[in-house]
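Forwarding the complex inputs:
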Amino acid sequence: MIKILAACGAGVNSSHQIKDAIETEMKKRGYTVKADAVMIKDINEDMVGQYDIFTPISKPKLSFEVKIPIVEAGPILYRIPSMAEPVYDEVEKVIKKFSLK
Amino acid sequence: MSEIVNLANDIFQPLIKLGAPAMMFIVLTLLAIAMRVKVSKAIEGGLKLAIALTAIGQIINLLTSNFSVALQAFVKSTGIHLSITDLGWAPVATITWGSMYTLFFLLILVILNVIMLAINKTDTLDVDIFDVWHPAFCGILILYYSHNNLLLATCFVIILGTLKLMNSDLMKPTFNDLLDMPDSNPTTTTHLNYMMNPIIMVFDRIFDKCFSFLDKYDFDAATLNNRIGFWGSKFAIGAYLGVFIGVLGRQTVVQIFTLAFIGATCLELFSFIGSWFISAVEPLSQGITNFLSKRLKGRKFNIGIDWPFIAGRAEIWAVANIMAPVLIVVALILPGNGILPLGGIIAMGITPALLVVTRGKMIRMIIIGVFEIPIFLWAGTAIAPCVTALAKTIGAFPKGVATGTLISHSTCEGPVEKYLSILIGKFGGNPSLQSGAIVVLALVAYLLLFFWYAKQMQKRNAEYARVAKLADK
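Prediction (whole assembly, two chains):
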């Protein structure tokens, strides 16, 4: 199971859209992923450590170094498939590169 | 207009009698199907909205039935009249989506967006359907005070929609700057909280002239957030507030514990349930976006999404953390305030606009933010009767609670727009020369301030363009 962390302002709207979109698309591509959506202010080093990929909307400013791969997932929020495609490709690339399971 | 309302009433009255959850289940599902969403997806969305409405009603019940007694005791023992229960944004958003008018205003705003894009008055395609509840709530305020003057409400929603689209274009280069986004990135937002920008800009100019020396005391926001850690999380804050109200309300130890845990539970559940109703609107949002983007092929545009794409900037949270205790203190001493911050205490409705105008100058964000607090608290107090009435009409208000109990949101986005809506609504309810003059004056002042702000932003954007050109050379 590949664990993905999505984050946004309230952990309610944008991050849930990202979570749902990535879960749906990755399932289509044959991967078992589980994404969680959280409030970005609640993220800390321990929490990030429990995930394989971090998919914020845009580059976040955090007080620690994120050691897992980051894929910026903002374009998913435009709801236009052709614009979201590169994000999914990037996630897939990361999964392959690190042979995540 | 009145014929339309009557016709709508004839059609919708039987639906409305079913109760808000059932009505919205049917209406949202049909609307999504009309937007060519797959039937199963449409039903899924409708069902989620119905359960979100039902669930939020239960949590409001849990919170108000426990807190209203303690709040009354708090008023009695301290003499401070803060009896309105602050639910934060999620319940207010949910009950606003429980009103059919919200769907009507959504339709109006989508049409407005298409027209403004077609005549090149904006470059923003707004796909943030969920946040339509903000302008829709302003419309509902007008309806509430004007005995359902739909024409007035629609006019104001259109004005607001137009300004929001203009503002989204104005802010675009600043977003690129704050997030290191290339020009090719289309992200922007029409969120109502950024309509506070003009007022913040006034303060920011005062800072430029008189207090710019304070900027050198700016500190790193990310480090501060890390230090605060879980102590600033929703459930922790909910627990403090339960203890605070319980102790000052002279409750027993058992009751104080109960209040602390119920406060924490409700604050967590409100946003959890909030996520259901956002995913409820999701199929409809996708349907509308498909419809719009198909018709706008070849037109280059920016895309308006919900505000948190800038939530990665640590300043937003650092300032919200610092403002939380200040919010309580101001609430306690502010004359005319009736609301004790609870659900709305993490002031996400205040800090993003501060970040955009000051571009991350921490000291300015904090000081201007503190000066803004009264505007938000007074607005939260002013909208309480309408929020309570709306909750009652959609059946999300607990029956057991004393009739005088009011609910509201202490840091609701767009406080100035809320006042304007109330003024306009009162004018509609009781038209007179005096109330008309007040509305006209208020609107003129509001628009003048906005256009002054627009000028400032155009100057800022010209500067961005100049720097970008230099970098190219």
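The mean pLDDT of chain A is 90.
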